[in-house]
């Protein structure tokens, strides 16, 4: 283990336990019913090129809809999904919903990368790359523009078919991203051997960039090391311009966060994109 890797775990663990406190977990029966009834919506959060300020892609973030029409956020059901094996159903529904949104407004997604979150549990299913490919084929989107985000909650090397699935996804043309880097078991030493294209720095690091010098230098080193591995860097949870500027200076390629836009439904995304382009084309 490098010094950097050793430094990561305690820092990240303290943040995760604070966040864990306000989680309200919905029961298996409820989550299953909502999924079976297609009570879900995908929100899209823009990803911005920090140097050029162009829109590069969107991340798909699922919300369930309860019987009163109230949105339920992933923190309140992902654990139930994963402990009761609902991850495959969730993934299928999310990809179906995205494909339906795409058919409704293909122009909205033209030239963008589309990031999809999958559970590490999905990497235990050999049919996953083919299933995903089959669904994406119904759109005009090339697999190269689909980024599969994986949070390494379990070490992929220890999984039955994890590595094989990653390789198959890459062979189909999909890109792979390691999500929430810094919070889990993932260390750069392991990632080096895996076919990832992108690394997402967790919000708990981004949050502290301008206030905590130790986080700042850690993030700086992380970006350099990840670049040596040929990975593109995305910073998540950017909320202020100072943080964006610090990341830009550290050569982080992509930024995502409330500073630019919150995750939003398709109709709102279309407006946001039109506005974003209008602002960009405005003479200064
Ligand atoms: P994630 O993939 O790391 O997604 C980023 C989360 O941070 C999202 O929360 C997003 O709304 C939030 N976020 C983005 N920018 C900011 C910011 O500037 N400030 C703050 N405070 N938050 C920001 P969300 O949508 O609640 O999702 C939480 C997690 O649930 C996701 O973390 C992802 O791991 C998981 N998730 C979301 N959609 C899916 C899905 O379709 N399938 C699976 N398996 N997991 C999903
Ligand atoms: Mg993600
Ligand atoms: Mg993340
Ligand atoms: Mg996260």
TrEMBL record:
For this chain's UniProt record, which GO biological process terms are given?
Answer: phosphorelay signal transduction system
Q: Which UniProt keywords apply?
A: Phosphoprotein
Which residue positions does the secretion signal occupy? none
Top-rank lineage group of the source organism: Bacteria
Name of this chain's protein: Signal transduction protein
Shown portion of the complete protein runs from 117 to 400 of 400
A Gene Ontology molecular-function term? cyclic-guanylate-specific phosphodiesterase activity
Q: Where is the EAL domain?
A: 24-277
